[in-house]
Amino acid sequence: MYIQYSMDQLCLPMDLEEDIPANHLVRVVNAAVNRLDDAIFDAAYPGGGRDSYHPKMLTKVIIYAYTQRIYSSRQIAKAVRENIMFMWIAGRQRPDFRTINRFRSERMKTVLETVFTAVLHFLAEENYVQLEHYFVDGTKIEANANRYTFVWGKAVVKHKAKLQEKVQTLFATIEEAEKQEEGVHKGRDLLEVGESAAVTSEKLEQAVRQLEERLQEKPKDKPLKKAVRALRKDLLPRLQRYETHQAILGTRNSYSKTDHDATFMRMKEDHMGNGQLKPGYNVQVGTENQFILGYSVHQRPTDTRCLIPHLEKIKAQLGKLPSTVIADAGYGGEENYDYLEQSEVEAIVKYSTYHRETSKAWQNDISKIDNWSHDSESDTWTCAAGQTLHFRRTSKVTTESGYEIEYRHYRSTSCEDCPLKSQCTKAQGNREIRVSMKYMQLKNQARQKLRSAEGYALAVQRMIEPEPVFGDIKNNRGFRRFLLRGLPKVSLEVGWLSLAHNLLKKADGKRI
Fold it and tell me: How far, in Å, CA of 135 to CA of 470, rounded?
């Protein structure tokens, strides 16, 4: 009546491989890692001590775990003990969670990018990717940090300025008391600290020591004793704390106290539903055929300033830049266009007003200089009312990265009686414009490429390139928050995610 069932009898076959289908994902991961040269991992193992688990085994286990939505080192160790696929790929070995976590976040920190690049070359050899069209986009992923322990750059600057005012007022009071009691103090060091516009903690420390020495000479001077106590116990520690905050902030406007590398950003995944900021990282990814060709992690909320560092990293990894870069309007700045042109990279990159330029409202807006005409010989602009704007001066602006933008300023001769002035400008006087001629030229080039048949096709294809990759990582595989803290370890997590994603795509068998 029933098929014979007994748990006390030995059953054959004993080989776990018999229970794994021939085209299973775990076999794809196993084959890809086996192709890697063992010498790649030498940098992670300087030698000495007891024998270590084989790095290829640990690499296979972690990559396969990431394909199965298992990211915790404890959960990975549990799967190695209980899951047949993990048992097979680990060769029945059982590394504990500490070994897995140490390998993932420490040993592989100088090796993972080499492994990623090697696997990418395997994909190129098998014609999954051609490394020609590079579709760039960014997504924000929440950091493993407290959402409510933040430091804001503007608040630090404001509080530090108020504290310095208090210090200067306190020193002025001390000096006034000294003048009244024993004449003008001969040493100028203390006065210099009090009069300084920016008191540093080092200067203040020296001044406090001088006051403490003076207090030993006059131990009954209560105002001086009170001032020294306030400086030593309150003002000096606060100033040191503000300087520490500014050192951590660097050029950012915020950071998290529980992950100093994380910046507060506005994200689509809002747990409170009120558009609040959360600590996170901006992950930049370049794809082709929905395979990840390159990745980088940034602390900036916006994509514009991330493109050049991202491409520089890709250039270092692959030895060259892709022949064509395709990106959305978030990357269309003068600095990025100029960089791509200087690097001889075909840029299919939109700028912020590209789509609005085709609307009737834009084309009928006489305030837009795009609707005016420019005479290159006389270097003048002619507005919609026929007024001529003459060149007056140039100005230069240097970006945070050191890139210099040159603006040319033009002004009309008379706008007082112009019937179109209310539609053209809200300024009281004559109309003045500031134009970067280089940016206008680069935008014209981008516009022509985007409106060509090839450019339009690539711009449309961009919609189904990086976005599905982000959707797969965040939604299908449930990775919405980093497990590790700090920029170096977060970058490693993105590397593991990218490896897992590429081998998942390879298992689908989709070639170009």
Answer: 13
